[in-house]
Structures are given as C-alpha cells and as structure tokens.
Fold this sequence. Notes:
- There is one protein chain.
- The longest helix has 8 residues, at 232-239.
- This protein is mainly beta.
- The model has no long low-confidence stretch (mean pLDDT 90).
- It has two helices and 13 strands.
- Strands 1, 2, 3, 5, 6, 8, 9, 10, 11, 12 and 13 form an eleven-stranded antiparallel β-sheet that branches. A two-stranded parallel ribbon has the order 4-7.
- The protein is elongated, with a radius of gyration of 26 Å.
- It is 5% helix and 58% strand.
Amino acid sequence: SQGRNAMAGAVIVNTREHELVGGVHPQFSARLAGGNADSLQGAGALGMTLAPDELALRIVSDQRMDDGDIYNATRGQKDWAGRRSSGTRIRAKWQPGGDGGAYSALLSAADLDLDQGSRYVLMSQEQARVSLSDAPQDYDNRSRLASLEQRLRLGEDWSLRAISAWIESGTRSRFDLDYGAEDQGRTLQQEDARGFSQELRLQYAGETLQGSVGAYYFNGRDGDRSAANIDLNAFLEITGLCGVQLACSLPLGRVQIDSSNPSRVRD
C-alpha cells in the first residue's frame, strides 16, 4: 500500500506543516551553531496563516558546512572530507471549507543539495586521518521533490485520497582507484533519475471495520554513466595478473573506459 519497492515495508517522513488558525499569526524560529572542523549550521523556519482557517504556509531552510577530519597530504587540502549541504522545503495547506470542509490539499516541495568529500583513508593512515589520493574523491547530489496530497470526505465513513509525486535527482561520484599519490587511475560516475507517481485510494473507516482499495501508477527513467582512466601497469599489478614481471615493467600506457546503463520503469 506504499507503492513501488515497498514489499518489505516503508519509512515515511512527514515534515511539520503550519496549523490553520483563525487569524494571521506568523511564527518564526531559527538556530545557529558552530563547532570543530570549522563546522557551521544555520536553520530557519517561517510559518503563517495566509487566509484564516483556510490557507497556511510553512518554509524551512537548513544550511550546513564543515571541513571534516581528514587532511590530504598529496593535494595539500585540509577540507578533503568536508561536507556542504543545503535544504529548502515549502509546505502549503489549503482547506477551503475550514475545519468542517470536505476537501483539503497539501502541496510540498523540496530542494536538497549535498556535497560530501571522501571519508576513506588507507589503513596505514587511519590513526593520522591523512589521505594520499591524488585524484578528486567526493560525492555530490542534487534532488528536487514535489508532491500534492488531496483528500475528499465522501461521508461519515468514506473518504477519497489522491497523492501525486515527482522527483528529479542527479548524483556525481568521483574516485581515485589506488587511493595513493601516484596517478594510477580515476573514475567518474554520473547517476540521474526522474520519476512520477500517482496514487488513488478509496478508504472506509467504520467502528469495527476499516480498509481501502485503490490504484497506483509510476513512470520513471534512470541513467548511470561511468568513465574511467586507468594505468594498465597499475591495473595488472593490483589484480595480480602480472604473470611475467618483465611484461608489467614495460610502459603499457593507459586505457579509457566509458559505459552507460539507461533504464525506464513503468509500474
């Protein structure tokens, strides 16, 4: 009953929405914090009723950054494992008939951005927390989400619920193949996804019996593109394929690998 890929269960996060009240009473809250590794966080939330008992809006913004606890000695970079994140969420609730109205709508939208440096170091450096990678190694994701939930009360026991949802996400990941100071290889992976879902439920809630019947639709596209630049001598040595040491001592050059794996899902 939670849509695609939820056979084993689902984790549902409902962020706070501004309550409808009889007057225009704006509420604002904010937080500012700092700490080790040049960490800084600023967050603020604004909620207000735009039309008494009918329309309310809530906006939340959260910005965080820190340099992490890993120093890259090869690149001279102190924020190698740094983290930068920003998130903005908007929720608008409309109930044209007030508390006694039969119809209500909740519109939600979010813009999320996360840039995270690598927290991996070689085992020989795990106490010092020093990275030796010569190539960039990080993770960057940008996601946009939107949903519209509509409810219609059909009587004392019956109600109709419709949820429309849309998501767009792009993720870039970069890796140093040998985690060392020599340029032996690097990879770049780009993952893009977008999808739309529509859910419709007819629900019954009586004193001794409750249940629902409905329909669910999903249409999405995914794309996974990878590019790698690998030193062949280093690759043969890492994989243990140097049967003849003389062959691995010769300059074999580099190889460029490109691949993609697009897919489309309808459910």
